Amino acid sequence: MEQRTLFQRLRPHLLFIFGLFIITSIYFLPAWQGKELPLQDVRQGNAATMELRYYKKETGQFPNWTNALFSGMPGYLIAHDYPNTYVGRATAAVLRLFPRPIDVVFMQMLGLYILLVVLLGKQASDTDEDLPTTLSSTARGWLAAIGAVAYGLASWNLITIEAGHISKILALGYAPGMLAGLVLCLRGKYWSGAAVTGLFTCLNISANHVQITYYLFLCIGLYVIIEGTRLIRLGQVRRLLIGLAIFGVTTGIGMASFSKRLLVLNQYSKETTRGRSELTAKTTTATAPGQAAQAKPSDHAKPADGLDEEYAFQYSYGVGEALTMLIPNLYGGLAGSGGLDAKSATYQVLVSRGLAADELIAQIPTYWGSTNGPAYAGATLLFLFILGLFISRSTLRWFMLAGLLLTLLLAMGKNMLWFNGLLFNVLPYFNKFRAVTMTLTMTPIFLGGGAMLALYTLLTQKPTVKAIQRPLLIAFGLTGGLALLLALLGSSLLDFQGPNDTAMFGADASDLLRALQSDRASLLRADAFRAFFVVTLAGGLIWLYLTEKLKASLLLPLLFLLNTIDVYSLGRRFINSQSFIPHSTVDSAFDETPADAQILQDKTLSYRVFDNSNGNFDFMNNNRASYFHKSIGGYSAAKLQRYQEMITYAFNDNAENILNMLNVKYIIAPPVDSTGRPSGSPVAQQNPSALGNAWFVQNVQQVADADADMAALKTLSAQQTAVVDKRFADQLKGLPASLTPAGTIQLTAYSPDKLTYQSDSPTEQVAVFSEVYYRGNDDWKAYVDGKEVPHFRADYILRGMRVPAGKHTIEFRFDPPVVALGNSLDLVANLLLIVLIMAGAWFSLRGAKQVGTEKTAVTV
Q: The whole model's pTM is what?
């Protein structure tokens, strides 16, 4: 047989990849028409970065700090320059050629396609091949494409996109590439394995979603254990050690290519709610702003390094919800979605009650599960996955099963506490993350891999009908049979009542609740029959192939078509053409209000705004104010620990003084009527008691620890007294017990990471600045007349300083050494990575030219 050229071998894959791009483009066609998804989290992120982007436009570079949210936080956490990350920037530039979300979804499909093609490729030698027969490029392409489409259009991934978690989807797109690099390394393809590993590790870190990367490494660990055991059993210890060494080194290079990002994340995480709290007092109880204190054991501040277990597992998938992999509407579909029409029983009850049924029906949720919706990637895929467990002899099936179980168990959080509780307390860094349900976005990787093994076995071994009859019936029974059972008996096996139904409808709405339960049962029944139909079709195609009534050249395209139609049509429930809105209205949630306009007329250098527009003190969960102003609140998963503790434990008790010391000059809130209830549109109310950018105090109260500091903050009059932890006692030596505030101190120049003040006082003073204390004297440094001087933390969260008598210029500059170090490491690692990728491509292509015809190839 004539040796094929490289292009001839790649051509089928290029065509399949182009096909994946076409499917993605058709699904998200409105994106090509200039429309966008609202992407709530993206809009929140844009609002948080407004100040940073403004200064980037003015100065050409992002500042390292922002005062737009939480009264101040490192800006490099939300928007920053990475000038030396050449590989990541080049890839991002290519992705920007395509509209969102086409770019990220196509990247997901491409990533899994690469992994599945690699898994089906040749291994290092003929003595230890786990998949001994080589498939043709076309056959591998069909198998990989089936899994790739399901991965990109899986329901949980579409739900994630609709929520605006784009960095998560990007990380998921690059994750299979890292696994592909590991597979190549352990198969003895060291150069290609090194290049693929380095490239996709770099890109995965560039996506900036550490939690997905963490879960990915757990899956990598599973593969190392399973494949490593196989290689040891075969006596291939040398290859195992070399492969692991190369994977480790190239993973390190890939991670180092974004050193600055990792270094600042590592440093900042210790200061956030994911770090260790200094509070230990049993009397420190959490009270939400605007509510009375209620001491509860779960509210006590804990010295744990990481998140509280209850908070970390707040979003947990129900055990029974795993069956949504087969029947999407088993628990009612999508959280927050109505999903009912005028023919529903609920609609009829609303009409009978004389209510506005057409308006209310869209507000009644059919979903009665624990979190956000189904984890569906195709009934065809699930059927083939189970079949593969019975007919495949590859050890890869154990990796696919282990990966599937791991991602499901992790997603169940508190509902599988025997497993997740152990990991939470034992596994390093596991307690830094919450919303474990995001592991469901990785489940289709393993479903696709398992389905691929089933089809590989069918194509290469060509088992007889008799040999495969039993496993085929078992797989069909566990999928199609179960779906039929639930379609017929589901209404008697499930109660269809969610945990919040009674509270939502009230005790006198039993007829409405019964109607909703009936509608939920109908939704289950329809989807169960749908799943039975899909599995029956898939099983029928395989039966026709086994009985030689259908050739492989038709089997694979038909299975691909069946699965694509299945996930495509199901996905339209979550994102469809109506989900898109014109580009001009994407930021409509941040339209300037009259209150904003009034505040923006104030050209004072720096002041803060407390946005209580909704009247329910949700300022710590919304970035709307940050879009226009310097806000004391915000929305971020990475809030400073001390700032959150101040809000949680002291704000309710001493709100007026806390607002004053944070220099809150304006409060946005609705006016109140004669009964004290909010009435009308929010207005801007000026706070005449705001203490300004800095002030001199007359007393300095030293306290023993963070508990005493917090206790003092609850009753503190910040204008008169500064509370200082005793660890800063050296800076207070020689200070008189009582001071006489005299003179002035005012802000004269402002930029987010550089503040300039002028002070003029006849005697030495102690000044408190309405700025967040963060890594004082290391990252934030203070200067008096150009000479560096120490400063201390005051009032639990602010900055304080001794100011000498006379006229002086005081500066605070934020210039973290870790940023400069990270830039240098980025440069070195990116140059190494580029050389590695070029070398890997060179040696891989050189080796490919020496390869003859494919051995025992199965063609399609």
A: 0.91
